[in-house]
UniProtKB/TrEMBL annotation:
Annotated InterPro entries: DNA_pol_HolB, DNA_pol_III_delta_C, DNA_Rep/Repair_Clamp_Loader, P-loop_NTPase
Name the record gives this protein: DNA polymerase III subunit delta'
Domain named DNA polymerase III delta subunit C-terminal: residues: 223-332
Keyword line: DNA replication, DNA-directed DNA polymerase, Nucleotidyltransferase, Transferase
One Pfam family it belongs to: DNA_pol3_delta2
Top-level taxonomic group: Bacteria
Enzyme Commission number(s) of this protein: 2.7.7.7
Single annotated GO MF: DNA-directed DNA polymerase activity
Regions annotated as coiled coil: none
Catalytic activity, reaction form: DNA(n) + a 2'-deoxyribonucleoside 5'-triphosphate = DNA(n+1) + diphosphate
Origin species: Nitrospina watsonii
Length: 336
């Protein structure tokens, strides 16, 4: 399938198709950027374009035996390595040295069918230190006709010596229109109303998996509760405010709720700065957010945001949830 079918990522597409066109494909690339924006998909399309029987001006044909085998994970010259868990109960997935050694063995042979051997290492930051050291040798002296593509959303967790040997290609969050069309045709979005898709697009930060995973009903409930809360900030309503703290402490997803709260406060600050509804994260709530800006100074809203940041921080250090939330609301009342 040609690069054109990958939505967004114009800059990455440009870099890759230029390299193919000019015959200047590097030995190793690092694809980095947010999760779920098309990095792995682009790496596989690159592998297809390099080995395609009838490549066009815009990447692979998508229908020749080579392209089909890569799509099915059965091409003898194209390898995809991903982190795996040591056992079903293990907490973290990793790429281990045995897997790197196995890959190096396969890369050592000349290509069976294709023109290029391609290894895509997804979640490259999950290589453990031994795996990294072993892989470094391949990066330093790559076998001929070999392309290595390291894919990561956490490049800062990788060894600088690995990064410095790769050509970096940066990926960006998907623009709303690209994300919307991906969601509209995605099997998981069957039966979704337009408003729901729109809400997911708005809240996804340009990431497909995030847009699909969002629990829209839960978010809607949190937002309702938080709007009510922000509307009642007063020392005279401490009973209501403390009741909310108690309920959240008893079983709410505190981090998620605070994230929503920050989003709403951020929107209040944006409205106070004179921006229109199109600048809001919670665009669908514009008419309900506007009245909440009344009687609050911008400094007050910023002070409240600051209180949320601090609360999140101390909760990460295992502070008591109910006390921390109560303290945060006291600071809100003081600011409001
Ligand atoms: Zn093809």
């Amino acid at each position: 399938m040609p690069f054109e079918t990958i939505l967004g990522q114009g800059q990455a597409k440009h870099i890759i198709s230029r390299a193919i066109e000019n015959g200047t494909v590097a030995h190793a690339y690092l694809y980095y950027g947010p999760e779920s924006v098309g990095k792995k998909r682009m790496a596989m399309e690159f592998a297809k374009a390099l080995n395609c029987a009838q490549p066009g001006t815009d990447g692979a044909c998508g229908v020749c035996p080579s392209c089909l085998k890569i799509d099915q994970g059965q091409h003898p010259d194209v390898f995809l390595l991903e982190p795996t868990k040591a056992s079903s109960t293990a907490r973290d997935a990793a790429i281990k040295i045995e897997e790197i050694r196995e890959l190096q063995k396969k890369l050592g042979y000349t290509p069976y069918e294709g023109r290029y051997k391609v290894a895509v290492i997804d979640g490259a930051e999950k290589m453990n230190p031994q795996a990294c050291n072993a892989f470094l040798k391949t990066l330093e002296e790559p076998p001929g006709s070999t392309l290595l593509i390291l894919v990561t959303s956490n490049p800062y967790q990788m060894l600088p010596t690995l990064i410095s040997r790769c050509q970096g290609v940066m990926f960006h969050p998907l623009p709303p229109e690209a994300l919307r069309s991906i969601l509209e045709t995605h099997p998981d979005s069957e039966g979704m109303l337009d408003e729901e898709i729109e809400l997911r697009v708005l809240r996804s930060q340009g990431q497909v998996a995030r847009a699909l995973a969002e629990d829209v009903a839960e978010i809607a409930r949190y937002r309702e509760e938080l709007l009510a809360l922000i509307g009642q900030l007063s020392f005279r309503r401490m009973d209501v405010l403390f009741q909310w703290s108690r309920e959240v402490a008893r079983g709410g997803d505190t981090q998620k709720i605070l994230e929503e709260l920050l989003g709403l406060l951020r929107d209040l600050a944006v409205l106070q700065a004179g921006c229109g509804a199109e600048a809001l994260n919670n665009r669908d709530l514009a008419s309900r957010l506007a009245p909440l800006t009344q009687g609050k100074s911008r400094a007050a809203v910023l002070h409240m945001m600051d209180a949320v940041f601090r609360t999140r921080h101390i909760l990460n250090m295992n502070a008591n949830v109910q006390l921390s939330l109560e303290n945060m609301l006291l600071q809100f009342c003081e600011a409001a």
